[in-house]
Amino acid sequence: MADGKKLSSLDASFLYLETPEMPMHVGSMAIFRLPDDYKGDFFEDFKAMIVSRLHIAPILKARLEKAPLDIDHPSWVEDDQFDIDRHIFRASLPQPRDRATLERIVGWAHAKLLNRARPLWEFYVFEGMKDNEVGLYSKMHHAAIDGGAGAALTSMIYDISPIPRKIEPPAAGSKPGQEPRDIAANLLDSYQQLFSQSLDASAAKKLQLPRTGKSDIGSILFDNAMYQIESAVRFAGNIPTVLKSVSDVLAKVADPRSRESLVSMVSPPTMLNKSISSERSFAGVSIPLSRAKALAKKAGGKLNDVVLALASGVVRRYLLQYGTLPAKSLTAAVPISLREEGNTEANNQVFGMICAIATNVDDPKARLEAIIAQSTKSKEMSHPLRALMPQVSNISMLGAPIMVQILALLYSRSNLSDVLPPAANITVSNVPGPRQTLYAAGAELLHIFPVSISTHGQALNITVQSYRDQLDFGFIVGANIIPYVQVMCDMLPEEFAALEAAYAPPASDIKVAAE
């Protein structure tokens, strides 16, 4: 068996929770503009560029290798039959070949599961669009990537000038697998190191016992035993941090003011919180980043508060049209990155918070102010959990994978999300992106609309990525809940205009200033 890197519990969970109705891949719809004098074949140029840079992101050539009987998490191993033509496709865009048509096709393609026999990513290139534009739809399984790692992959794919930079080819040779005697020697060295130094968080974090990296039963049992020893040592080294976090959580819960915040995080049932089908509807829209930041500054909040306010206003308008807006405020699940600056590992380092988004407030200004207050409280409530997440996010137990998959399938087939209260009503995520203009194979990147995940009970996902001086919003939803999400997407510029008008100075002040 080939040596491999075992998935963390968090990464593997995205595999176990996946069903035909609930694919667990994330992606984007990028729009490029070719130079007026472009004479080449963009598809072939783009594919050749990716091939030349595959060694920068080894995850792109890694496939899954399952453990026997699913008794443990699968591993990433290099695909010795890797074929780039199974991952980058020249796609057809029917007339009128505009962005609306592209969005419909992206929604359709995003509902299709990735083939787990191959590396879990695909690119589709759509040429021949109006105004010399080219569309690129990409998707990659969430088991391999989160928003932070996605930004790192962006730096691999894109350049900061129309002329692609030269990338040094990979060094020849590969690291040989360890022999049993080497593993035994390393194990003895690790134990000697463990017992010869003081046990603190720093030392515990550095402890690494040897692994076989293989997928036979004996190797899996050995590797799992090594992992359990590492986990126990790391947990022991972090006991002071864990105890402080637990104490902080209990103090928050006991505080009467925090109880009010907890009540606000309870989500009312809505039409958006039902079981979803295996079809998706997608749409994208952009607003100016500088104006959104200026609005946040005027309101005394953050950019993310403005994003939440826009999502709140859009959902409020949509539910009002159908007469189904609850009296209680809706909530949003907001992912929070745990990734340290400079960490570009292709894995998931994230947790989340629940925030009330003031959909019960009619006035746009008052709604944003309420969201700023609620998000501050939610951050305070979730802050003690931040230190706990690294301790609990990689819990591993033999036999758990098959059990989790059975439970996920049962939840999906039983339509329990139609009757259980939702954990949150919608998902809203804000991913920071580059401010400078980017290029791929000589084409200028105009937009990069995120395409994220819809789940049972949370049909609507609104993910935002900043690029240059714009915020690109991607709306993805189960098509059985909202067949044409473009209707909701079109409301966002109107909500943004309403927010800007709410914070604009009175006309009398403008007149006095002019005089």
Automatic annotation (TrEMBL):
It comes from the Bacteria. GO terms for cellular component: plasma membrane. One of its GO terms (molecular function) is diacylglycerol O-acyltransferase activity. Residues 7-307 form the O-acyltransferase WSD1-like N-terminal domain. The keyword Cell cycle does not apply. Pathway: Glycerolipid metabolism; triacylglycerol biosynthesis; Lipid metabolism. Residues 348-499 form the O-acyltransferase WSD1 C-terminal domain. It is an enzyme of class 2 (transferase). It catalyses: an acyl-CoA + a 1,2-diacyl-sn-glycerol = a triacyl-sn-glycerol + CoA. Its EC number is 2.3.1.20. Keywords: Acyltransferase, Glycerol metabolism, Lipid biosynthesis, Lipid metabolism, Transferase. One of its GO terms (biological process) is response to hypoxia. The keyword Chloroplast does not apply. Belongs to the long-chain O-acyltransferase family. This is diacylglycerol O-acyltransferase.
